[in-house]
Amino acid sequence: MTQSLDMLPSCDDTHDVMRAQSVLKTEAEGLLALAHAIPPCFPDVVNLFFRTRGHVICTGIGKSGHIARKIAATLASTGTPSYFVHAAEANHGDLGMITKTDAILVLSESGSNSELQGILDYASRLNIPLVGMTRDAQSALGRASDYVLLMPAAKNACPLGLAPTTMTTMMLGLGDALAVTLLQRRGFTPQDFKGFHPGGKLGKHLLSIADLMHAGPAIPTVNQTDTMKTVIMEMTEKRLGCTAVLDDKKHLAGVITDGDLRRHLTPDLLAQTAESIMNPHVRTLQPQAFVKDALAFMNRHQITSVFVVDDDGVLCGILHLHDCLRAGFAKQE
């Protein structure tokens, strides 16, 4: 029966904030309890997932299923091939997604959901390693599992004791712990992460200088012995406001900017050599550096371009401020 508006509890902002704080504190206490009671088999599970030749199949039902889907996504994005299989759909053909080279992670607070039985039986028949994340080691899931990630007892944040809250938060936290531990075990790098996250703001901030820099013939370069006529022609053609000056071994010896030309503007300018007016103190970065860091570097040193050198100091590119702006980076990022 629907209540009329005048029968509903009155709003009280203070009490609402206190309720929210109580929920968060209760769930934080659950996470803290879990941190002090990491299941003894946790390292074994990490080793299992690290050695798995196929995928880590994450599954569950209800709210645990939603958490399993998130854990699968986090594992996959951090270097551990993984995907989610819905426990109920598994009983209607999706078991075919799971192979003998996989490992299975099943989430269930009670460990007794009837929808899980199909996956448990399938894992047993095919001898697929099974990991259960549950609070009851004697449940059907607990008994069927090769490893049980046993969750500690914790107070439910739901005052009715019905909606899964603290337990699902703890499951989510333990899933993150697995993913991050595996990430570190694999030596997963920001460049690896970039390969899995090419889109959106995260993808943009993982762009490296090598993705945007001008390379090869597009780099403005002159030799130390070249005349200023050659320098001006090179700078005019490449239109980046500067040119690199190379020594006889083709190493970066200096830089000449538009500002240097103005400062040395005399009647005999064209008769001078690049070496005579170049600035030998060149600010450089390496190609694997992130564009966001290069932009901060240029802002900090009040320059509009930076030359890029490899580990041996060989010139391999130039990045201009406008390249960063065109890629969607704000000047003050």
**CATH fold-level name of the largest domain:** Rossmann fold
Order of helices and strands: HHEHEHEHEHEHHHHEHEEHHEHEEH
Major sheet: arrangement of strands = 2-1-3-4-5
Structural class: alpha/beta
Number of strands: 11
- The CATH homologous superfamily of the largest domain is called Glucose-6-phosphate isomerase like protein, domain 1
Instruction: Pick out the low-confidence regions.
Output: none
Global shape: elongated
| Secondary-structure arrangement, i.e. CATH architecture of the largest domain | 3-Layer(aba) Sandwich
The average pLDDT is 87
What is the compact description of this entry?
This protein has 15 helices and eleven strands. By secondary structure, the chain is an alpha/beta fold. The longest helix is centred in the N-terminal third of the chain and has 23 residues, at 13-35.
Topology of this structure?
Elements: H1 13-35, H2 42-51, E1 56-60, H3 62-77, E2 82-86, H4 87-90, E3 103-107, H5 117-126, E4 130-134, H6 140-144, E5 147-150, H7 166-186, H8 190-196, H9 200-205, H10 209-212, E6 221-223, H11 228-238, E7 242-246, E8 252-257, H12 258-263, H13 274-277, E9 284-285, H14 291-301, E10 305-309, E11 315-320, H15 321-326
Parallel strand pairs: 1-2, 1-3, 3-4, 4-5, 6-7, 9-10
Antiparallel strand pairs: 7-8, 10-11
Helix pairs in contact: 1-7, 2-7, 3-7
